[in-house]
């Protein structure tokens, strides 16, 4: 995700991660991985409930008009994410 975020960020790709973990745990994970995209905290799990997240990682892809154009409930390879981005009009 980080690689794609850096590659496509200037073309409009926005990556938002959401975690139900404690702030300190998330901060260490972000620092260890070197992620530069935003990670939002959802301690009560409201976002997970609202988006019907029944396992992690779960990814959602919205197009520029805000329509859901793809989702995955597993770890995706770079090529799989690239295919999803292409379907959303980002190449």
Protein architecture, described:
The protein has 91 residues and is α+β, with helices and mostly antiparallel strands. It has one domain: Glutaredoxin, CATH 3.40.30.10. It has four helices and four strands. The protein has helices at residues 2-8, 23-33, 46-50, 78-87; strands at 17-19, 39-41, 59-62, 68-72. It has a two-stranded parallel ribbon. The protein has a two-stranded antiparallel ribbon with strand order 3-4. The model has no long low-confidence stretch (mean pLDDT 91).
Question: How do the strands and helices of this protein lay out in sequence?
Answer:
Elements: H1 2-8, E1 17-19, H2 23-33, E2 39-41, H3 46-50, E3 59-62, E4 68-72, H4 78-87
Parallel strand pairs: 1-2
Antiparallel strand pairs: 3-4
Rg over CA atoms, rounded to whole Å, is 13 Å
Largest sheet: 2 strands, parallel
Quick one: CATH superfamily? Answer: Glutaredoxin
Task: Give the SSE order as H and E letters.
Answer: HEHEHEEH
CATH hierarchy, class: Alpha Beta
- Given as residue ranges, the uncertain stretches (5+ residues, pLDDT < 50) are none
Kindly report how far apart the N and C termini lie: 15 Å
Q: Could you name the CATH topology?
A: Glutaredoxin
CATH architecture term: 3-Layer(aba) Sandwich
Q: Look at the structure and give the mean pLDDT.
A: 91
User: Quick one: overall form?
Assistant: globular
Give the neighbour order of strands across the main sheet. 1-2
Task: Indicate the structural class.
Answer: alpha+beta
